[in-house]
């Protein structure tokens, strides 16, 4: 059975910006992440999982309303199929019309050309969705992708770039995001004290990671609306 889990994303002042929507599956009494239960996936199964997530979001409108933007990662398999991608984006737009704010995260594993990506981003934005480059620093999420398209958010895979020699790149990302009104989010943050060290130039970025919160299964996370205030 697939369930939704939410992990909070925080502004630098600690206030909740929004939540990332994560899929979890209960197998033999254990709660597994997609990296575990999709490890041996067959063609088409990521598309089915993406559809399932959207359906679960639509089924939980009341619980998810008023808690801020919901960041939903769409798999590279879905994005690569234009018809499936546009169908899913339309479904997410339908959810937006019911009062939710949705940010579409573009998988770092998506490798189609810039023209195809731009078409999908324009389509999503035309229907009222926000868009985020996901896991910057991994696979195809790089500076060329960041500057080549219009984004609402840039989510940095912090462990992938967590060496001082990357400070110039991280500072360049920060400066680009500030100049172009792109929200900067550091993902997979396990220790906030690092922002007092060599990463201090990025201490104004929003944060997501175990240092701030762990994913909590929907309906087991009380008073979401209260926690977002």
UniProtKB/TrEMBL annotation:
Pfam families: EAL
PROSITE patterns attached to this UniProt entry: EAL
Gene3D superfamilies: EAL domain
InterPro entries the UniProt entry points to: Cyclic-di-GMP_PDE-like (IPR050706), EAL_dom (IPR001633), EAL_sf (IPR035919)
Source superkingdom: Bacteria
All residue ranges annotated as the EAL domain in the record: 1-229
Protein name: EAL domain-containing protein
């Amino acid at each position: 059975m697939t369930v939704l889990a939410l992990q909070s994303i925080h502004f630098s002042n600690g206030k909740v910006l929004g939540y990332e929507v994560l899929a979890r599956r209960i197998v033999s009494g254990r709660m597994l992440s997609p990296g575990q239960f999709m490890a041996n996936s067959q063609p088409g199964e990521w598309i089915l999982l993406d559809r399932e997530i959207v359906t679960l979001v639509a089924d939980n409108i009341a619980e998810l309303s008023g808690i801020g933007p919901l960041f939903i990662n769409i798999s590279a398999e879905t994005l690569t199929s234009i018809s499936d991608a546009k169908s899913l984006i339309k479904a997410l737009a339908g959810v937006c019309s019911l009062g939710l704010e949705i940010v579409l995260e573009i998988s770092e594993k998506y490798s189609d050309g810039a023209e195809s990506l731009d078409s999908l981003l324009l389509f999503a934005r035309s229907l009222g969705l926000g868009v985020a480059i996901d896991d910057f620093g991994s696979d195809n999420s790089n500076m060329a992708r960041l500057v080549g398209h219009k984004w609402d958010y840039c989510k940095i895979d912090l462990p992938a770039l967590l060496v001082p020699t990357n400070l110039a790149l991280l500072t360049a990302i920060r400066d680009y995001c500030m100049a172009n009104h792109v929200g900067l989010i550091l993902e997979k943050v396990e220790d906030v004290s690092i922002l007092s060290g060599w990463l201090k130039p990025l201490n104004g970025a929003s944060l997501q990671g175990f240092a701030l919160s762990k994913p909590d299964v929907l309906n087991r996370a009380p008073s979401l609306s209260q926690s977002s205030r």
